[in-house]
Amino acid sequence: MPKRRARQRAKKEKVSSGTAFVGFLFLGLAFGILYNQVAVGVLVGLGLGFLAMVVLQYKGFE
Asked: Residue 48 has what pLDDT?
């Protein structure tokens, strides 16, 4: 039973870092559209998304 919980927890944590990446990407896209600088917004979103993934993985999320 504990192994099952550990796998479910690991699966849930794995989703969170990837979700953070996609979330920042879309936020960057939205701000880029808002300020009429789509390419810049996407690049900023990508950068923040990668940083968020690194921070979450460092804190124990996959």
From this structure: 95
